[in-house]
């Protein structure tokens, strides 16, 4: 039975400007791949990320180039070799998973989760800004876990402002490669004083050797430094956690493999996301069932999510329903 591929680009306005160390944006631009077969339809969403050399046009072309192969019977398993890890493979991989669930009558959760999926608690992101504004945003958020965007050469004031404004919140500090080695110890010590639970990617990729030689008063999580399971062994001794994102791993298939290997190597696991809709979050929400830290707040940052979407009760994320994905 042949399959048909269709691809669309969609734009979703953000509730407010989203700022990190590398720049800012006011909308989420996503690509949705849809594979149809025998009256059933599977969908997957991805976010091309410029940090990894991806563009909307380039990822769209990557996906569309496989239209003939998908029509001829390309499988999810074969896709892993056909495309490299990244946004394009993620959209197609998740579309295949969704289609398999629809055609088999078995949910993806029943195939990949050890137990019945449960609600999980997600972090909520505070964008990079001046300390007093970040403190005000943290106070207004009233969330149990706050992910605080950092990444300047002096974030001491930001850490203090957020901790003082939200003393009961657990804090994840995300530097997005923005700290420097000469200021690292000062930032780590302030993070510890501020009660941070995790620090994400403090140093640039390729410049993180120092992490193996200094104490970690707060656990350190690799993000930009880790994409697939092949990267994990090289991070042993430098990082304590790894952040698994489907747009980096190239889909749920590799992410599941990556999660298992991370556990074997002794890493804690964080499941994260790009700023995107519930269609991106749904497969990640299943991966999050076996995670230590969950950061799947993408839809909470949008002015309006797609319908139907995931159900959030504050910071608690319910498992996806079949009418959305899987």
TrEMBL record:
Active site: 149, 245
Species of provenance: Fulvimarina endophytica
Gene3D superfamilies per UniProt: Enolase-like C-terminal domain, Enolase-like, N-terminal domain
PANTHER family per record: D-GALACTONATE DEHYDRATASE-RELATED (PTHR48080), ENOLASE SUPERFAMILY MEMBER DDB_G0284701 (PTHR48080:SF3)
Positions that bind Mg(2+): 174, 200, 223
Mandelate racemase/muconate lactonizing enzyme C-terminal domain mapped to chain residues: 131-221
Protein name (Swiss-Prot/TrEMBL): Dipeptide epimerase
Membrane-crossing segments per the record: 265-288
Enzyme class: isomerase
Entry keyword set: Isomerase, Magnesium, Membrane, Metal-binding, Transmembrane, Transmembrane helix
InterPro entries on file: DgoD-like (IPR034593), Dipeptide_epimerase (IPR034603), Enolase-like_C_sf (IPR036849), Enolase-like_N (IPR029017), Enolase_C-like (IPR029065), Mandelate_racemase_C (IPR013342), Mandelate_racemase_N_dom (IPR013341)
GO MF: metal ion binding; racemase and epimerase activity, acting on amino acids and derivatives
Cofactor(s) listed in the protein's UniProt record: Mg(2+)
SMART domains attached to this UniProt entry: MR_MLE (SM00922)
E.C. code: 5.1.1.-
Cofactor note: Binds 1 Mg(2+) ion per subunit.
Family the UniProt entry places it in: Belongs to the mandelate racemase/muconate lactonizing enzyme family.
